[in-house]
C-alpha cells in the first residue's frame, strides 16, 4: 500500500512539471511573436509615397510632351500679357486723352483675365511660365514710363497697335498648329479679344493725332 501511494505521488508530480513546461513554452512563443511584430518596420505613408511618385511622373510627362513651338508661344503670351497690364496701368496715371485712359483700363481688365487662364493651363500642364518681362519688353515699358501727357498718348497707342498686330498673328498660328489641345483652345478663345483690342487701339491712335 505504501509503495502504491509513493508511485501515485510521483506520477502527479511528473504531470504537473510537464504542464508547467508547456505553459512556459507557449508564453515564450507568444512573447517572441509579439517582439517580432513590434520590431517589424511599418511605413504608413508607403501608399501615399507611391501615389505621389505616380503624380509627379504624370506631371513631368505632360511637361516633356510640349513642343518647342508651344513652349515659345506660351512664354511669349505670358510676357506679352504682363506687359499689356503694366502699360495699361501706366495709361491710368500718364495719359491725358480719355480714349487712351479707357483703352488702358480695358487692357488691364482683359489681359489680367487672359493671364490667369494661361496660368491655369500651365499649372495643369506642369509648365513654368515666365513671371517677368524680357529685356526687349522691359525697354519698351521703361521708355513709355518716361513719357507724359500727349507724348505718352501717342507712344502708347502706337505700341498697342503694333503689338496687337503681332500678337494676333502669333495667336492665329498657335490656334491652328499647337500640339497641345488646351493651349490651342486658349489661343482661339483669346484671339477675338485681341482683335477687338486692335480695333480700339486704332481708334485711340486716330484720336490723339
From TrEMBL:
<feature type="region of interest" description="Disordered">
    <location>
        <begin position="37"/>
        <end position="66"/>
    </location>
</feature>
<protein>
    <submittedName>
        <fullName>DUF4142 domain-containing protein</fullName>
    </submittedName>
</protein>
<dbReference type="InterPro" id="IPR012347">
    <property type="entry name" value="Ferritin-like"/>
</dbReference>
<dbReference type="InterPro" id="IPR025419">
    <property type="entry name" value="DUF4142"/>
</dbReference>
<feature type="domain" description="DUF4142">
    <location>
        <begin position="69"/>
        <end position="201"/>
    </location>
</feature>
<feature type="compositionally biased region" description="Polar residues">
    <location>
        <begin position="45"/>
        <end position="66"/>
    </location>
</feature>
<dbReference type="Pfam" id="PF13628">
    <property type="entry name" value="DUF4142"/>
</dbReference>
Amino acid at each position: 500500500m505504501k509503495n502504491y501511494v509513493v508511485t501515485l505521488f510521483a506520477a502527479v508530480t511528473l504531470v504537473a512539471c510537464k504542464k508547467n513546461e508547456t505553459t512556459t513554452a507557449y508564453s515564450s512563443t507568444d512573447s517572441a511573436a509579439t517582439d517580432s511584430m513590434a520590431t517589424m518596420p511599418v511605413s504608413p505613408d508607403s501608399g501615399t509615397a507611391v501615389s505621389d511618385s505616380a503624380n509627379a511622373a504624370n506631371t513631368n510627362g505632360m511637361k516633356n510632351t510640349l513642343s518647342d513651338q508651344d513652349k515659345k508661344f506660351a512664354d511669349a503670351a505670358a510676357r506679352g500679357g504682363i506687359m499689356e497690364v503694366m502699360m495699361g496701368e501706366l495709361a491710368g496715371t500718364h495719359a491725358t486723352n480719355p480714349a487712351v485712359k479707357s483703352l488702358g483700363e480695358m487692357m488691364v481688365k482683359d489681359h489680367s483675365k487672359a493671364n490667369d487662364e494661361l496660368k491655369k493651363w500651365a499649372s495643369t500642364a506642369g509648365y513654368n511660365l515666365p513671371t517677368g518681362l524680357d529685356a526687349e519688353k522691359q525697354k519698351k515699358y521703361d521708355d513709355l514710363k518716361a513719357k507724359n501727357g500727349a507724348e505718352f498718348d501717342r507712344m502708347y497707342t502706337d505700341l498697342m497697335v503694333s503689338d496687337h498686330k503681332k500678337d494676333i498673328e502669333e495667336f492665329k498660328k498657335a490656334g491652328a498648329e499647337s500640339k497641345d489641345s488646351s493651349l490651342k483652345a486658349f489661343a482661339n478663345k483669346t484671339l477675338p479679344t485681341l482683335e477687338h483690342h486692335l480695333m480700339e487701339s486704332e481708334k485711340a491712335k486716330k484720336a490723339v493725332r
